[in-house]
Amino acid sequence: MVTEKNYTVKIDSFWGNFSKPYKKWAAEHGMEYYEFSIIYELCQREKLRQKDICEAYSYPKQSINRVAINLKEKGIIDFIPSEKDKREKEIVLTEKG
């Protein structure tokens, strides 16, 4: 019988195996996996919100915020005002990124 707990364990196992090569690549290039996730998503889309990353990866908002600020300080990303809501900022890659 498949229970919710068994289903969750299977998803966690799948995600762990799926993300292993990406985590390895990130580590070999001196990056945190969170940093890799942001950069990867920005390579797929022109811009995104921190909320988009949190929802896509189920990451804590505080972790993504900390990593995004670090990437901005390294000159890899920048924050721009959202066209839809000026109170919200979107993340974009810089030329260096």
List the keywords:
4 helices; alpha+beta; 97 residues; globular
Q: So what's the overall shape?
A: globular
Low-confidence stretches: none
Q: What is the count of DSSP helices, taking H or I runs of 4+ residues? A: 4
Beta-strand fraction estimate: 5-15%
Q: What does the largest sheet look like?
A: 3 strands, antiparallel
Number of strands: 3
Computed structural class: alpha+beta
The CA-CA distance between the termini, in Å, is 48 Å
Compute the gyration radius: what is it?
15 Å
Q: Give me the strand/helix succession.
A: HHEHHEE
Determine the mean pLDDT: 82
Indicate the percent of residues in helices: 55-70%
Strand order, main sheet: write it out. Answer: 1-3-2
- Quaternary organisation of the protein chains: single chain
In short:
This protein is of the alpha+beta class and 97 residues long. 60% of the residues lie in helices and 12% in strands. Strands 1-3-2 form a three-stranded antiparallel beta sheet.
